[in-house]
Amino acid sequence: MGIRKRGSRWLVTVECGLGTDGIRRRRCVTCATEDDAKRTLAKLSNDVYSGAYVDVSDMRVAAFLERWLEYVESRVVPATHRRYKGMVATHITPKIGGVVLAKLSPLHVTRLEAEQLDSGLSSTTVRKHHWLLKAALDQAVAWRLIAVNPMTGITAVAERRPEIRTLDATGQARLLDTAAGSRMHAPIALALGTGLRRGELLALRWSDVDLAAGRLAVRRAMRFAADRSCEFGPCKTERSRRVVSLPPSLSGLLVSHHTEQASKRALAGAGWTDGDLVFCGAQGAPWLIDSFATAWKRLRAKAAAAAGAQASKEALELHATEEQATQAAKAAAAPLLACRFHDLRHTHATELMRAGIHAKVVSERLGHSSVRVTLDRYSHVTVDMQDTAAEATDALLAPLLRLA
Questions:
Q1: SS3 per-residue string spanning the chain
Q2: pTM higher than the cut 0.90
């Protein structure tokens, strides 16, 4: 450890102890003047002795990302930080955490993203990982841990939107009929009638609902925390905070649901957890996402089985063969088996668009960030609307052409 002159410049050398490979580490810095060299020596020596010095020569990506997460914790909201931690711990560190930061290459990143897509992650999720890792590595450059961000010049994977799936009127009726009498009936009806997301439904409170006015306010949502527990938090975006008008039929359904829930609360007495939730567990506690998803899958399978049995029966009554009846049953059951709960939201939006409701109104009901998002997402409906527009134009133009 010391200073020595090398040509016209000054070389500072500091012993940094042993690296993780057992080899002694030494930090060398070249300074323009002797005074600069003395200041540098004092600072580096103090950092080494106080433990503040970090030997970046063998720093791994995992260790760097831990430090970056500590850095950003005070710069983002808690929910965002938990999401970042979850993404790093689940999808990034297990794959490239052992790579030396200084040796991380574009090939490591492109291979990581290819493996994520192959594992079934959506392009949207992989893009989020891309931008998080790029931001972290930009900070590594700012901290002078690496000279160049290895992700510079790497384009994020193209976003591939999943196909929009919706239920026709028969499928919706089958779903509601199957859910009748169960606690899934009201949330399914509300999803079909308002387009609320699952997390928004599970976080909805009676104080958010004005049955007299026929409106509900979406103010928060249930979501997974980094450890897979559930928590209530702000809506997905600022536009997701919204007021949605209720059809009279849904207002009546919610009145009945409220009365039924009040009876259960009275029976439970002190054992009832009063969270003011519209949709809750058996004793008033929050209805957790995993539990809700399980109930949805069971009901969906039951509805699909009923639809298949009905189709098979009708086919046999028309003297179809057993094979034809089996095919009819599979065709009838398929849309329900493939239906995700989120597809009820798509169904609501599609029905409104086809009914000619203005895209801005649909966008506001769904809580989209802009009308453009609504139009892009439901472009399959706008194609049908183009045909309708052509027919309307023809009704106006045809008589004029005959007059000409």
A1: CEEEEECCEEEEEEEEEECCCCCEEEEEEEECCHHHHHHHHHHHHHHHHHCCCCCHHHCEHHHHHHHHHHHHCCCCCHHHHHHHHHHHHHHHHHHHCCCEHHHCCHHHHHHHHHHHHHCCCCHHHHHHHHHHHHHHHHHHHHCCCCCCCCCCCCCCCCCCCCCCCCCCHHHHHHHHHHHCCCCCHHHHHHHHHHCCCHHHHHHCEHHHEECCCCEEEECCEEEECCCCCEEEECCCCHHHCEEEECCHHHHHHHHHHHHHHHHHHHHHHHHCCCCCECCECCCCCECCHHHHHHHHHHHHHHHHHHHHHHHHHHHHHCCCCHHHHHHHHHHHHHHHHHCCCHHHHHHHHHHHHHCCCCHHHHHHHHCCCCHHHHHHHCHHHHHHHHHHHHHHHHHHHHHHHHHC
A2: no
